[in-house]
Amino acid sequence: MDASAGVSGSSATISLSLDNKLVCVEYPAIISNVDKMMETVGGIQGVSKAYGDPSRRLELRFRPRDPFCHPVCGNRYPSTNLLLCVKKRVRKCNPEEAQIDMKILGVIGTTYKFQGMADFQYLAVHSAKDGSQTSLYDKIILRKPENNEFFEQRVPLFLPPPIFSPVGDAHHYTALNKEALRAVPIRARRPHNAIFINFDDQNIPNEPLEAAKVNWKRVCVHASDTKAEEQMKKMFESRPIWSGNAVKANLDIHPDKLKLLLPVVAYYMVTGPWRSLWVRFGYDPRKTPEAKKFQVLDFRIRCSSKHGYTSNDMPVKAKRSTFNYTLPITLNKTVPQATNVTDLAPEGPNPGRSANITKYQLKESSYVFREGTLPPHRQMFYQLCDLDVESIRNVFGRNDGQEEKCDERDGWCLSRTADDLRDIMSSMIKQIIRNKRPESSVTRPKAPESGQDDEDEEEDEDEFHPSEGSDNEMETEMLDYM
Known about the structure:
Blueprint: E1 4-7, E2 21-26, H1 34-40, H2 43-52, E3 58-60, E4 72-90, E5 98-113, E6 125-127, E7 133-135, H3 137-140, H4 148-152, H5 178-183, E8 196-197, H6 210-219, H7 223-238, E9 241-243, H8 244-250, H9 255-265, E10 266-269, E11 277-280, E12 296-300, E13 369-370, E14 379-383, E15 387-388, H10 390-396, H11 417-436, H12 454-459, H13 471-481
Helix pairs in contact: 6-9, 7-9, 10-11
């Protein structure tokens, strides 16, 4: 069927054929030369390569012959547009009399839009002290086979950054120092209304904020929500201090609802031996020696050849990795839309699955350490009461009944108790890893050469030393409950 039509009036009917499918590129510049424009996007081959991989973005280089040109990436969007060709014919003898011809050339199902910033550029030039600049392209780019003189010539140091920015789009960002950040009304921005207490604060709260109660009542719409609230209150009655993972492992509730329920039954300790833990309202662990067993231990698996393994061959993987970095030329995963917590289905077993299957509950290993098992992550926050090893309990119980003072570093324990616990746990993990691997694959520390002492060898070790706390992880959890 012919897809063209001559129009003499104000409207026309045009037939549409879906056979001719097109791809649209919204080019972010005025085009004066089509060939040069195609060269900036890699030609037909470059566009076809990007279109053939749905997870890939279209690269545009304004200096295509410069290997150091940072590309602008075009995002891929589905579209339902038409490419319409309109021709207007005018009679020379009578300009007011015109004929318009319209034709649909095809359907545009995919559109590439360049919405990122193009100012991340790094030129291969050398700036002298007098302000003069010298191009380095002929000195560092191999354009043809060269002799040794080319590789031995003295060239100024040129190290282009591998990554210009983790994001390519412009965002509003306001930098604040710690003093200004404290003055920001954070609770006005987040609806969770948790109470945060430092170790040196004089008083502890006896009840939650009224806003926290209101927020929980607003989302407590299912019978399972009421049951979860009762269960959590019983948990804090039997044990006054819980870690976030311990709560998640003993309570099957949606994480978004948990953020609103926890501030109703407990406050959050920011510093001290109970940092990053939730404490029952009205309970002050600084005045109760029995709270010693609820103290936190920041444990990190030590990685070095001295311990028989390195970070590359350790069976416990890191939570975060640089290999998960999303390249600028790839599409970011679609971010799920935020769910209204009042619309969440009630927790509990569905008719089509077993009653023993939980939806959100963590495994026991997420907060309990036992002999013969590896931690799920390289860094773990354990409470002393969750270290289910007799030798470990004997260490932090050395001064049971003789506790005199609670300090911010060791709490009710003797000095350096945390270091002793980490040494015991590290040796246990070291033995587990050795038992799980063949003898031939065990990495043994190299014997020091003659003339070297043990101190030199230890300086070369790539050991990860534990700290007093992980600010990154704790701040992330705090932001969730503010």
